[in-house]
Known about the structure:
- The protein is built from nine helices and no strands.
- The protein is elongated and about 60 Å long.
- Among the domains are: 7-55, Arc Repressor Mutant, subunit A (Orthogonal Bundle); 102-145, Arc Repressor Mutant, subunit A, CATH 1.10.10.
- The longest helix is centred in the N-terminal third of the chain and has 14 residues, at 39-52.
- By secondary structure, the protein is mainly alpha-helical.
- It has helices spanning 10-20, 25-32, 39-52, 57-68, 74-83, 88-100, 102-113, 121-133, 138-145.
- The relative contact order is 0.10.
- Helix 5 (74-83) packs antiparallel against helix 6 (88-100) and helix 8 (121-133) packs across helix 9.
- 66% of the residues lie in helices and 0% in strands.
Amino acid sequence: MPTKKIEITLRNRALQYLSRREYSRAELQAKLLPHAAEAEKVDALLNDLMDSGWLSDERALEQIVRIRSTRFGTQRVAHELRQKGLSDELINTALPQLKEGEFAAARAVWQKKFASPPQDQKEKAKQIRFLQSRGFSTSVILDVLRGRDDEVE
């Protein structure tokens, strides 16, 4: 018995993606373009989804910040937001929130990985590189390694 190929409409495909997680407009556009005959149809659909509240760059930003800020520093999260096609204007609104919790996140990540202060320069360099790879700023990293209990302004 031959199998039937079910054609998924562009709108249904977009709603399937959005039912799993929040997407930025640019991300969803990139996912839908290979399935569309014309780019204008994708733009019209995205405009309609934004107007109806199904698609929101603000919600996508909030979701990414909420999830990533516990494991990564401000620089890394901001870079990811730019990669997802969010505007610099929108990213700048999230930066104060990211910077506010950066010390606590860096300390938690550091404690989970190392748990004790570096004993020599080689170990200190290793810990600094690790935290830098997670996107934490140098000042926050140094405060964590000095064993500060709370963020120093």
